[in-house]
Design brief:
6-stranded mixed sheet; alpha/beta; Purple Acid Phosphatase, chain A, domain 2; globular; about 260 residues
């Protein structure tokens, strides 16, 4: 007999204030919702993803960003992704790709997002107009599969305006901060997905990784590593910092 599917804990929305020095006063209070590591496919139930989309929309964010790994391994999952991630609503939507997107079909994932009307940034940047002010969004392509080009991503960015950088893998954060990013948003880690205090930390350190989940200070910048939405390997998330989440960041003006 087939085994019953494991119950999945609903996605939680986590709200955070992020202080940025000399932020344009018109951007004070602007909200950015962040989805990552959705992993459409066999392990992540469709309803779990549709619930995440609904919660992101309910946040009424001025900007929605996504930082990669929308599928797992198969080209067939791209069509599923187009169905399951449809309907995000915001003034601006910007996405970057992750390693699993390239394992399946990076070109296919990017084309699907184009059809959905979402802005794909592959070593590119855009300048958004929000409340009459300018906000830079830089999208660095996936470093795990070596598609990233940070110099190209930041070429021509106007440093007079606040800059949000999107990059699937957080280990590029130092370089992004050096290039002037104020807020760096990543995923990739799932918070460890199964986190055992001490053991998981040693494993992560042994892999040469520094960032697992949550906020980190990187130079003058803030890095947030989202635990993401979906599952890989097993349909289990256990331990601190692993729960499926949609972080929502409220930008706040701080003294320089």
């Amino acid at each position: 007999m087939p085994q019953p599917r494991r119950a999945v804990t609903p996605v939680v929305v986590n709200n955070h204030d992020v202080a940025i020095g000399d932020l344009d006063p018109r951007l004070d209070g602007v909200r950015i919702a962040h989805l990552s590591d959705v992993h459409v496919g066999r392990l992540t139930p469709r309803q779990h993803i549709r619930d995440a989309v609904a919660r992101a929309n309910a946040s009424a964010a001025d900007v929605i960003v996504m930082t990669g790994d929308y599928v797992n391994w198969k080209r067939s999952e791209v069509e599923m992704m187009e169905d399951q991630l449809a309907g995000l609503r915001s003034r601006h939507i910007a996405v970057t790709l992750g390693n699993h997107d390239y394992f399946a079909s990076g070109r296919g994932v990017a084309k699907a997002f184009g059809r959905m009307g979402y802005g794909v940034l592959r070593n590119q940047h855009t300048q958004l107009r929000v409340n009459g002010a300018r906000l830079n969004v830089v999208g660095v392509d996936d470093p795990v599969t070596r598609h990233h080009d940070i110099d190209k991503s930041f070429a021509g960015v106007d440093s007079a305006h606040a800059t949000v950088a999107l990059c699937h893998c957080p280990e590029q954060a130092d370089r992004l901060a050096e290039r002037g990013a104020d807020l760096i948003l990543s995923g990739h880690t799932h918070g460890g997905q199964i986190y055992v205090k001490g053991l998981t930390d040693r494993v992560i350190k042994g892999m040469g990784r520094r960032y697992r989940s949550g906020f980190y200070d990187v130079g003058h910048a803030k890095l947030y590593v989202s635990a993401g939405v979906g599952f890989t390997g097993v349909r289990v998330r256990v331990g601190h910092g692993t729960r499926a989440e949609i972080p929502v960041y409220t930008l706040r003006r701080a003294a320089s």
